[in-house]
């Protein structure tokens, strides 16, 4: 009997250790999944550089303009690359807007990158200007938004900008890094700021119809964009 009791205690100890190990493994796996989902990259729900390239393929792009230059309507979008709401629209709604309104020739999009939120925004805007010089602004902005970090945390450094440039479809990385502090890039940055000042923009993202009126989006979706566009075209 004493021997049976000892065996029983041993079995209970072994079972307890196994249960503890299973619990530890479950916690580690859960924490690992959480860390991956909370990490900075790919805020667009799995969208890749290939999908960015595909969404813009075949659409004319000239500097800040995406779409047919003689499209009947032009929508001006003003963004800050640090702005989380800009990222939400860009990664969630913009591909559908491009597919339905831009690719069809209904509208052209004019993208103005401004430095609204701080020093990181200026660093990003300068690199965006370099991408603009290569007619890759929209690819760069979308790629940036997919990897957007915490606002004004200092993440927009040399390594980050190089990484985003390398992920941007069609961008000559070395040329862009060299061009970002050029007089030509600085002129683009200053022009964007001047447009924002002239239009009285004090928040991002802001959408305006060139022929008159702001697009008042009720939410950052493609459907809300289409509705606001229709309302602006009708004069409010």
Spatial extent as radius of gyration: 25 Å
Percent of residues in helices comes to: 55-70%
Task: Give a short account of the largest sheet.
Answer: 5 strands, mixed
Write down the CATH topology of the largest domain: Glutaredoxin
Which stretches are low in confidence, meaning pLDDT under 50 for 5 or more residues running? 1-5, 23-46
> How many structural domains does the protein architecture include?
2
**CATH C-level class of the largest domain:** Alpha Beta
**What is the CATH architecture assignment of the largest domain?**
3-Layer(aba) Sandwich
Beta strand count: 5
Task: Supply the helix-strand structural class.
Answer: alpha+beta
Give the full name of the CATH homologous superfamily of the largest domain: Glutaredoxin
Order of helices and strands: HHEEEHHEHHHHHEH
How are the strands of the largest sheet arranged? 1-2-4-3-5
Q: Termini, distance in Å?
A: 91 Å
| Percent strand | 5-15%
Discrete helix count: 10
Mean pLDDT: 83
Q: What global shape is seen?
A: globular
């Amino acid at each position: 009997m004493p021997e049976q009791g000892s065996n029983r205690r041993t079995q209970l100890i072994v079972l307890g250790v196994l249960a503890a190990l299973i619990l530890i493994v479950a916690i580690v796996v859960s924490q690992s999944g959480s860390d991956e989902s909370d990490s900075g990259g790919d805020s667009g729900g799995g969208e890749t550089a290939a999908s960015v390239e595909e969404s813009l393929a075949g659409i004319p792009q000239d500097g800040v303009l995406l779409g047919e230059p003689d499209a009947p309507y032009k929508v001006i979008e003003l963004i800050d690359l640090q702005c989380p709401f800009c990222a939400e629209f860009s990664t969630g709604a913009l591909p559908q807007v491009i597919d339905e309104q831009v690719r069809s020739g209904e509208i052209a999009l004019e993208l103005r990158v401004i430095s609204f939120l701080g020093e990181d925004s200026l660093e990003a805007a300068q690199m965006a200007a370099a991408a603009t010089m290569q007619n890759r602004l929209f690819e760069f902005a979308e790629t940036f938004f997919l990897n957007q970090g915490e606002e004004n945390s200092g993440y927009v450094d040399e390594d980050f900008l190089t990484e985003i440039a390398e992920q941007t479809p069609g961008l000559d990385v070395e040329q862009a890094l060299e061009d970002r502090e050029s007089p030509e890039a600085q002129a683009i940055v200053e022009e964007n700021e001047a447009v924002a000042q002239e239009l009285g923009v004090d928040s991002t993202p802001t959408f305006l119809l060139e022929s008159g009126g702001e697009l008042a989006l009720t939410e950052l979706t493609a459907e809300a964009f289409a509705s606001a566009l229709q309302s602006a075209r009708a004069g409010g």
